[in-house]
Here is the input.
Amino acid sequence: MALALDRAEWQEKAAQFQLMSITDPLTGLLNRRYLEERLTEELNRSKRNLTPMSFVMVDIDDFKRYNDSNGHQAGDDALELTAQCLKSVLRSEDVAARYGGEEFSILLPQTNIDEAHFIAQRLREKILNTDYVHGRAQPLGAVTVSIGVSSFTKLLDNPVAIIGAADRALYVAKGAGKNRVHLDEESYRDYLGTNATGPAKQNKN
Here is the structure.
């Protein structure tokens, strides 16, 4: 009995260590390493089953200003609150991760770019309407995010391409004024090519 209890305790500890190895300690979200492994798995599944898959990059606008003006603890609190916003709008099958710094990423299995656009807009609006302690001092009068979205296509068929496309779309959103969602052009064209009606217009606030 004692041996069985000891073994069960070690198994529980091993599971805890495994969870810690794939989790960001500040936000409680999954980490970049795990996200990239899951992305590879989901891409392979999409190729086999010919199902859609989308990927989202999220960046907090003017976060350096927020951090420098209010201190690192306030910055950490803002990151935690942003992570809570992500969790509140995502579905159980979605995978949210802290990609690094003030950047987050979301893997959306079996989701086309139209559906991903809708989810990204919900997230943008959720963060815009969330009361961050120092949010009103930000350049846009609130804490906001810029979001880039890409999807699995014949040309975007590997993790590097998918992530790169979403990242480029993110920086288009930044350059267009921040606090907006931008869809990767290749993903958008591919979707329009296979559907009678396409997603909402680009950069809709």
User: Anything to note?
Assistant: Helices lie at 2-21, 32-49, 63-70, 72-89, 113-128, 159-175, 185-194. Residues 2-21 form the longest helix (20 residues). The chain has one domain: 2-194.
